[in-house]
Amino acid sequence: MKKVESLFESIIFSSRWIQAPIYGGLIIGAILYSYKFLVELVHLATNVNTISEEILMLGILTLVDIAMVLNLLVMVIIGGYATFVSRINLESHEDRPDWLEKINAGTLKVKLAGALVGISGIHLLKSFVDIGKKDPELVKWQIIIHVVFLLSTLSLAYTEKILHDSDNKHAKHKN
């Protein structure tokens, strides 16, 4: 019976590799989104003399939005893989991101939520720049959604702080 249990636990632990193709797909998604960034950048650069300042600003906000989504993807790809699938051996790599040392499932959720707040903020700013052409009901819902993202992120961050403070106190008490 112990061998069956051990085999079953091994299968469960190995199932984490089912996620690996998902991270590969996200890498392909990041490449596609980078292409969209370049298309928008070329469009802005080739039309800079004929477009208004407002259209240029909206285009630049689109570039910022794409960059923030790509940052989010990188956090999900690297952080998710390292947290849930397998360690990434980067200890000696000169470009190793500092945040990777401190990543766990909780901090990854807070970072992702923070990135979503930033992306939502960019979309809200784009609406405000072009407010005359926007449906007030749509803008109202964008504000509500942004506030929900913000409050959710603050709640997640506060929960993580409480958990870390509790873990730290427990570790100090053990020592």
Explain what you see.
The structure is a single chain. With 175 residues, the chain is mainly α. The protein has one domain (2-174). It has 5 helices and no strands. Helix 2 (20-47) runs antiparallel to helix 3 and helix 3 (53-85) packs antiparallel against helix 4. The radius of gyration is 21 Å and the shape is extended.
How would you characterize the largest beta sheet?
none
- How would you state the average pLDDT, rounded? 87
User: What is the strand tally?
Assistant: 0
* Structural class by helix and strand composition: mainly alpha
Q: What percentage of the residues does DSSP assign to strands (E)?
A: under 5%
Oligomer: single chain
Separate helix tally: 5
The helix-strand sequence is: HHHHH
Distance between the termini: 38 Å
Short précis:
The chain has 175 residues and is an all-alpha fold. 79% of the residues lie in helices and 0% in strands.
Descriptors:
mainly alpha; single chain; extended; 5 helices; 175 residues; 79% helix
